[in-house]
Amino acid sequence: MAYTLVSTKKTVFGNKKVVIIEGTFASGDTTGTVVTGLSAIDFAIAQYVDTAKILNCAPSGGNITLTTQDPLATKTFRLIAIGH
Prior knowledge:
It is built from no helices and seven strands. By secondary structure, it is mainly beta. A four-stranded antiparallel β-sheet has the order 1-2-7-4, with no helix packed on it. It has a three-stranded antiparallel β-sheet with strand order 3-6-5, with no helix packed on it. β1 and β2 (16-25) form a beta hairpin.
């Protein structure tokens, strides 16, 4: 399993939907596709809570593929996606 979903929060900014996702990558996991529930993504950003690095945050349709350094231990990430 590439990542584990911890929580999803949804809100609206003007005419855009916003999804805030928290999840974890386990040691050895370096990629995962996050389903946001959006039909299209205009902007997305992801980061670990600590110093490990997310290398790529690639939106495609309503999904985002995250590529990360091997976290060497379970690490929490947060992702914000804005779209419609």
